[in-house]
Amino acid sequence: MYSMIDQESGDVNMILEHSILICHTQTMPPKQRIAPGPVGTTVAANVERLRQARGLSYVEVSRRMKQLGRPIAALGLTRIRDLQRRVDVDDLVNLAHALDVNPVDLLRPASEDSGEQSEWTPPSSDVQQTLEWLKTPEVHRGEAPPFPPNARIGPVRLTVRVRHNAPPIEIDLVPVLEHLDATQSEEGDIDGDD
């Protein structure tokens, strides 16, 4: 329905248009939920366990989540506990921060012997400095920061093929580097100026 005003007389004319009402007599099928997998179940259990271990109410965790910019209402937290609400990656990271743990600790099953996971600690300043240096474009890097004293060389592997169709051979370089390091300490520093 709409109205038109006659410009000459000022009369308002109401015009009805045809309307069709469609009614479905069948009910919609119930919404199928995707059951959480083992990792989702572990996350829900860890959130609840850590919340209780820290003596936090659902309202307090909800308040912390809001402060982190990823609000989840207290009801949403109970739905996570009851496996009625899924946790996406952003929720996972913020839940971990709200509970003062590393996000990985929410993904791991709780250790039966300790009953608690490791506390999350931010990287030390020397590690942050190294990471910033690595993120900087190579032309702007300047001198490398000192290697963090508590850092260890992780797996360094070299993959080579002796022949074109031969299977690759993988060599772990860590023992080689450690041997070179030990050899250099025995012989004195090698400065490469010889």
UniProtKB/TrEMBL annotation:
Molecular function via GO: DNA binding
CDD domains listed in its UniProt record: HTH_XRE
Gene3D superfamilies linked: lambda repressor-like DNA-binding domains
Annotated Polar residues bias: 117-127
Span list, region Disordered: 108-127
Listed name of the protein: Helix-turn-helix domain-containing protein
Native species: Rhodococcus aetherivorans
